[in-house]
Amino acid sequence: MDLFAKYRENKGPLGQYSDIAHGYFAFPKLEGELGPRMKFRDKEVIVWSINSYLGLANHPEVRKVDADAAKDWGLAYPMGARMMSGETKYHEQLETELADFVHKESALLLNFGYQGIISIVDTLLARRDVVVYDKDCHACIYDGIRMHLGKRFPFEHNDIESFEKQLKKAAVVAEETGGGILVISEGVFGMQGEQGILKEIIAFKDEYNFRFLVDDAHGFGTLGATGAGAGEEQGVQDQIDLYFSTFAKSMASIGAFVAGDKGIIDVLRYNLRSQIFAKSLPMPFVIGNLKRLELLRENPELKDKLWHNVNMLQNGLRKQGFNLGNTSSCVTPVFLSGTPFEAGNLVLDMRENYNIFCSIVIYPVVPKDVILLRLIPTAAHSEEDIRQTIEAFGAVSGKLKAGEYEKEVDISIFS
User: Fold this and answer.
1) Boundary-marking domain end, from 264, 298, 332
2) Residue 135 domain-assigned (yes or no)
3) Which residues, other chains included, contact 375 with Cβ-Cβ below 8 Å and sequence gap of 6+?
4) Model pTM greater than 0.85?
């Protein structure tokens, strides 16, 4: 059988929509300066799909440092993996400052978040070890767990009774195999916006011997008194064994890091295959991330402005009767009822007639009768952006309830 033959009829759960989705619903091209208002198909739209929480993506100080670093160092420096020839004092400085910011002893800089956490999970878990994880964890965590050859115990999302049940099973297996237990959750779940039940999970540490890894990509820089994330917000940062975050959200950059006690960070430093066999993070990103961290650390008003906008947007949508689920973060999910056809027409109407651009999520990511519109408010959005968006949501919701989006998506507009 031809290896590719099976894909002629089955392009995958998302690929099945590629003929009508590509270039509009999927892989759309936003153009212009990064910010709350950009161009989509030559029309200005209010954008709610960029994860630059603190507005640093187009911050003038950040842009200048990025440009100066590219001019001074180029994109190649340093060449080689860090272990062999790619180490610099700036990489080490960034690790030191990150560790201090999230209240950990040590940190390891990672080239990318997705590959980084896959490699962390793979490195930590041997065959005899077991892993317990929230079912709604990000795809990168799932991909890391898929590489594990030992037992896996998923628990229902943010369900402490389910967690305890799975933890008990894991403890039995670990006792039989002589292995250890790794528990994984997220600081903020990126689709629903809920914070992970970190405090509740940590309460079981007195009874069970496990280590706790938290992916806090959406919490870093947005939650906690200093912006150190969901662990700080919940008062348990010191009890998180490994704290992970990407730079792709609040830092509006490339790269990631993991922080914890020096002993385990040194183990990861010398064993993470995604790092020791990959080129060192280029200097412009390192220098640029140092500047971003400085702004995050020394300008709390950025986080204050972010939360002003978050509260204004979420409170306004709730007053209109929209279901935002249980979000306790900046992530703003709007849950509607409808078919994929209705979802497509609703988003088409929103973009073409109301100039609102936000992400759409449909089955199989959510149940068949659910339309999820996800908004990411930032410190750069204006109150007018928010007011206009709330009005648009009210209008399209009325059309959805009236059945105006039931027809098949008209793809002629894409030509």
Assistant:
1) 298
2) yes
3) 48, 313, 332, 333, 334, 358, 359, 389
4) yes
